[in-house]
Specification:
177 residues; alpha+beta; tt1808, chain A; 3 helices; 12 strands; globular
Length: 177
C-alpha cells in the first residue's frame, strides 16, 4: 500500500486480500466511502434477488449487497454492485469473495445521492470488463435503463412497461412492487 502526501492510503491490486467488508469503492487506488442505503433501496435489491433466484437458481448464482468487482488491476479499480447474477456457464463453481470475472447481469438501484456522471462511469466500467447486461433502476423517476454489452445504446422503460430482465424473464415493475 502506498501513501500520498496527505497520508491517504493508495490501494493497489496487491491489497485485494486485506480489503474489509464495507460500503465503498476503490477508484484509481483511492477508497471512496459510500453512504448507507435506505429501506426502499434494500427492498428493490430483495425483489430482484427473489426474482432471479425463483427463475434461475438452478442455472447460476445471485448475490446482493455491494458485491465487489475488480475492474482494473492497474490503476486499481473496484466497483460495488447492488445485485449480481452469474450463470454456471460463466462460472461453473459458485464464486467466493471479490469477483474477478464479469457477471452476466448487474442491477444497480439508484439512491438519492447518485448523479448521472457517476452512474455513467460505473456503467462504462462494467461494460469494459464484459458484463453482458446492466440495469439501472431509478425508483424516484420510475425509470429503468438497460445497457447490453453487445449494443451501443441504452433502452429506457417506465415502471408501467414490460422489459426483459434476463433469459426471457419479462417483468413490469408496477406489477412486482
Amino acid at each position: 500500500m502506498k501513501t500520498t502526501l496527505k497520508n491517504e492510503k493508495i490501494f493497489t491490486y496487491k491489497d485485494l486480500h486485506i480489503l474489509t467488508d464495507g460500503n465503498y469503492e476503490i477508484i484509481d487506488g483511492e477508497k471512496i466511502d459510500m453512504a448507507p442505503t435506505g429501506f426502499r433501496h434494500g427492498k428493490f435489491e430483495s425483489i430482484f434477488s427473489d426474482l432471479l433466484n425463483k427463475h434461475l437458481k438452478e442455472k447460476g448464482y445471485v448475490a446482493v449487497g455491494e458485491i465487489g468487482i475488480v475492474i482494473t488491476r492497474e490503476p486499481f479499480r473496484l466497483r460495488s454492485a447492488d445485485v449480481v447474477y452469474i450463470s454456471k456457464d460463466t462460472s461453473p463453481e459458485e464464486p467466493e469473495g471479490i469477483l474477478e470475472i464479469a457477471p452476466d447481469l448487474i442491477i444497480e438501484i439508484l439512491s438519492k445521492d447518485d448523479c448521472v456522471w457517476k452512474m455513467n462511469d460505473k456503467v462504462k466500467d462494467y461494460l469494459s470488463i464484459g458484463v453482458k447486461k446492466i440495469i439501472l433502476v431509478d425508483s424516484f423517476t420510475e425509470l429503468i435503463t438497460v445497457y447490453k454489452y453487445e449494443k451501443r445504446e441504452a433502452l429506457y422503460y417506465n415502471f408501467e412497461e414490460e422489459f426483459e430482465l434476463i433469459n426471457g424473464i419479462n417483468i413490469r415493475m408496477k406489477e412486482i412492487l
